[in-house]
Amino acid sequence: MLKKFNCRKAVSIFVLVIMVFNFIDIVSWKRNDILSRKKAPSSSSVDWAKLYPFQGKDVRTTNGTANTPQKVASTGFLEKWRSAAHSITSKEKDLEKKCIYNMFAFHKFVELNGFVNKSCGRIIYPTPGVFLLNNGQWTFNAKKVSAKDIHRTAESISGLANYASSKGIPFLYVQRPEKICKYDPKMPAGAVNYSNQNFDGIIADLKKENVPVFDLREQIHKERLNHYSLFYRNDHHWTVETALWAAGEIGRKLNSDYSCGLNPAVANRNLYTKRTYKDWFLGSAGQMVSLGCAKPEDFSVLLPDFQTSLQMRIPDIELCKTGEFKDVIYNTKVLNTKDYYNSSCYDTQLYGNHALTQIKNELNPDGPKILVLGDSFCLSMVPYLSLMAKETDLIDFRNDQGDFTGSIRSYIDKMKPDVVLLTYEPHVLYSLK
User: Fold this and answer.
1) How far apart are CA 24 and CA 66, in angstroms?
2) pLDDT tens, residue by residue, 63-89
3) What distance in Å separates the CA atoms of residue 267 and residue 245, rounded to the nearest whole number?
4) What is the distance between the alpha carbons of residues 174 and 419, in angstroms, rounded to a whole number?
5) Residue 30 pLDDT more than 60?
6) Which residues pair with 193 in a beta bridge?
């Protein structure tokens, strides 16, 4: 009886200690989060809509699509209520997720679980949206986008392309590759990823709208490149080497179709020195499944062997840097510390996702100006594209990432680029007004 009592007492003390450590960890995380938010201005601190106002009746609503004021007014209180409810729900889910990930020894327990199951020949994925390809690489699920939503997205892109054309500015939709190869999926039974089908759908609709399209997936297939070697093992992004290749392909395409005067020769891999950080990168999927299921991989940067002089501005973090490529493009603080779970090496490029990033190549004053509308894949590609041009501006208009809330058309009017590129994941509708 005494032994049973002592056992219960020991278990109770152990649980209590764990709860106390959890509380301390969560409070510490919240304190650091608040302090970091105070120190660094967010994208919302810049009134993009004021700097680049919408034209006429165009406004941006909470879901990222564009409506007229009449449509917004017709919903009245209900629209505001839905918007507020969506905001609260999103914040609640985000807080819940962060509290879970900051629990005491959370990652160690997940690693232990993964290691035990893997040793027993079983893999239980900690996150339902992550799965292992038949070649041993990790990736994510992707839902099928309805034909109606694909058509609406194509119409939005077509509208922007026509607007650029009316200003005498060439427009090109660049379809980046997905980690899963269109011609060799290597997907396990039961896995769900419709990315390539979604891409095919948007391309088909864009061609009907006479929007110029450059499909990098077909270029990879044409050149017979090893598709899966172009991506990180534990992350959904392409590698820096692939990004350099993509920049060169885009540069040659723009020159051949629009005579842009770019210099794609700088995308020659032999002109760069590779600096490797051994076992430094766990990746977006690797962070989900933990070190118990995924092994860290090398992360590399490619530094030009030729002379460079760039100026980079990121308004929402009040950053302005001038100097060589290696001193301007990378946030070296991210690379100086190995932190598998709380940071990503990939975000060292262009300091991560921001609403607006502007790069001026001071050694190419007579080159063209490029406006890129894109997502996180552009973090590794745009730096090399900027070496071919005079000015390269990157806008990230995704609501949950860069969150550029101004009018893209107004930005085009002010920047007056020589060409507009659109390359992003068309899984969600966005405003392109």
Assistant:
1) 44
2) 444 433 333 333 445 545 555 555 555
3) 7
4) 12
5) no
6) 142
Positive or negative, the CA dihedral 193, 195, 201, 204 is: negative
| Angstrom distance (rounded) from CA 355 to CA 371 | 13
User: Which is nearest to 429 in space by CA: 28, 64, 41?
Assistant: 64
Q: How far apart are CA 211 and CA 255, in angstroms?
A: 17
Evaluate whether 351 touches 319 at the Cβ level (below 8 Å).
yes
Residue 124: phi, psi to the nearest 5?
Answer: -105, 115
Q: What is the CA radius of gyration of the chain?
A: 24
Phi, psi values for residue 309, rounded to 5°: -150, 110
Domain count, the chain: 1
Helices and strands, number each (H, E), in the chain = 13, 14
3-state SS record for 257-286? HHCCCCCHHHHCHHHEEEEEEEEEECCHHH
- Asked if residues 410 and 55 have their Cβ atoms less than 8 Å apart, the reply is yes
- What value, to the nearest 5°, has the Cα angle with vertex 363 and ends 360 and 369? 40
In a domain, 52, yes or no: no
Q: Residue 188 belongs to what domain range?
A: 130-423
Whether 25 maps to a domain, the answer reads no
Report the alpha-carbon distance of residue 137 to residue 184 in Å, rounded: 14
pLDDT tens for each residue of 347-381: 999 999 999 999 999 999 999 999 999 999 999 99
DSSP 193: B
User: CA angle 367-158-392, nearest 5°?
Assistant: 20
Where does 167-298 have alpha helices with state H?
195-208, 216-222, 240-258, 284-289
Gap between the Cα atoms of 85 and 293, Å rounded: 37
- Domain assignment present for 291: yes
- One-letter identity of residue 425: E
> Distance between CA 45 and CA 403 in Å, rounded?
11
Q: Is residue 313 part of a domain?
A: yes
* Distance (Å, whole) CA 329 – CA 244: 14
d(C-alpha 407, C-alpha 389), whole Å: 24
328 close to 312: Cβ distance less than 8 angstroms: yes
